[in-house]
Write a structure and sequence with these properties.
Blueprint lengths: L21 E5 L23 E2 L2 E2 L4 E2 L9 E19 L10 E7 L7 H5 L4 E8 L5 E5 L6 E9 L3 E2 L1 E8 L11 E2 L8 E5 L23 E2 L9 E19 L10 E7 L6 E8 L5 E5 L6 E9 L3 E2 L1 E8 L1 H12 L1
Antiparallel strand pairs: 1-5, 2-3, 4-10, 5-8, 5-9, 5-11, 6-7, 6-9, 12-21, 13-15, 14-20, 15-18, 15-19, 15-21, 16-17, 16-19
Length: 332
């Protein structure tokens, strides 16, 4: 299968409801609710599904404007971070999609109201650009600044199915206990840097916030027909000393790995054993103490021979170097 999507779409969706995002305001949502914009699943369409306001769309749709202006929606990023690209998906909107859109972003502390957000100076991430109907519209963005909110503007009105904000999460060190945290958590700044197979789902799901609600919210490989095994490597939030590992196969019943092991590395090239090859049970949260732990910056999960895993957690404390890395990332 050929994948012609931009490479940056493999980065996490910072705005996704699954990652804690929320649509805090929209000036209009008469035909379809703003909350649909950040649903993690693909848009769907059911013909002849009419409500009292017309065809029901799986997206955000505003009324037809009869005056000058534009419509807007403001999204609080569930994972604040740097933005590498955005997707304005107009799936199933054909005669009612907006011809143009722009995207702005802002960084703010705390939990401001929509009125307070409106008073801030926003940075332009995507200038006013043309859109295609019933299509994913990709816009690359190259920014090193950490953002907490994104604002989608459509000109002059219409419908957008999904709004994806891809990027790299950047945690606020002041809100973390740096001596005891999940070193492999996406929300703390960890990221997947290598993977043997992602046939069914993204390996980034392994380190996403919260528990997996269904099998599709984990990582699952194709069935192997050789003598090898599948693996994922993760760059940690910063150099740290792991004390407890969690290998969660929840929801994976007939397709969980039979065994798994963990390796650590200081540089992502030379690896040593962190957790020996250990038998796993299906649909189970496994927790293992890490014996004789030492500082690592990367962890590699090997599953034998293949299968699915819901979550990988690696609890421990950051070293002085790890703390410096986390704080430097936050400062930009």
């Amino acid at each position: 299968m050929v994948n012609d999507r931009p490479e940056w779409t493999s980065e996490p969706d910072l705005a996704s409801r699954r990652n804690g995002g929320g649509v805090v305001w929209a000036n209009d949502e008469l035909f379809a609710e703003r909350e649909n914009l950040i649903k993690p699943e693909r848009p769907e369409f059911q013909p002849w599904s009419f409500g009292h306001k017309g065809q029901i769309y799986d997206g955000w749709e505003t009324r037809r404007r009869r005056e000058d202006g534009a419509d807007q929606a403001v999204v609080r990023l569930g994972l604040p971070g740097t933005i590498t690209g955005v997707v304005v998906d107009t799936a199933f909107f054909t005669g009612n999609y907006p011809p143009f859109a722009s995207v702005e972003a802002v960084a703010v502390d705390g939990y401001p109201s929509p009125a307070e957000l409106a008073e801030l100076d926003w940075d332009t991430v995507v200038p006013r650009s043309p859109l295609k109907g019933d299509a994913e519209n990709f816009f690359e963005a190259v920014f090193t600044k950490r953002y907490t909110h994104a604002r989608l503007t459509i000109y002059p009105d219409g419908g957008v199915a999904r709004f994806r904000v891809h990027g790299k999460p950047v945690a606020d060190p002041s809100l973390l206990d740096l001596g005891s945290l999940d070193l492999a958590a996406l929300e703390n700044g960890a990221r997947v840097v290598g993977c043997s197979n992602m046939f069914y789902s993204s390996p980034s799901n392994l380190i996403a916030p919260g528990f997996a609600a269904v099998m599709g919210e984990g990582w699952e490989t194709a069935r192997r027909r050789d003598d090898g095994n599948d693996w994922v490597s993760v760059e940690l939030a910063g150099e740290g000393v792991p004390r407890l590992a969690e290998l969660d196969t929840t929801h994976f019943k007939g397709n969980a790995p039979g065994w798994a092991s963990l390796s650590g590395s200081a540089d992502g090239r030379e690896w040593f054993e962190v957790l020996p090859k250990t038998r796993l049970q299906p649909d189970t949260r496994h927790r293992f103490l890490v014996p004789d732990a030492r500082a690592i910056s990367f962890v590699r999960l090997d599953v034998y021979p293949d299968g699915g895993m819901a979550r990988l957690r690696l609890f421990g404390g950051l070293t002085d170097q790890g703390r410096e890395t986390l704080e430097k990332r936050y400062r930009g």
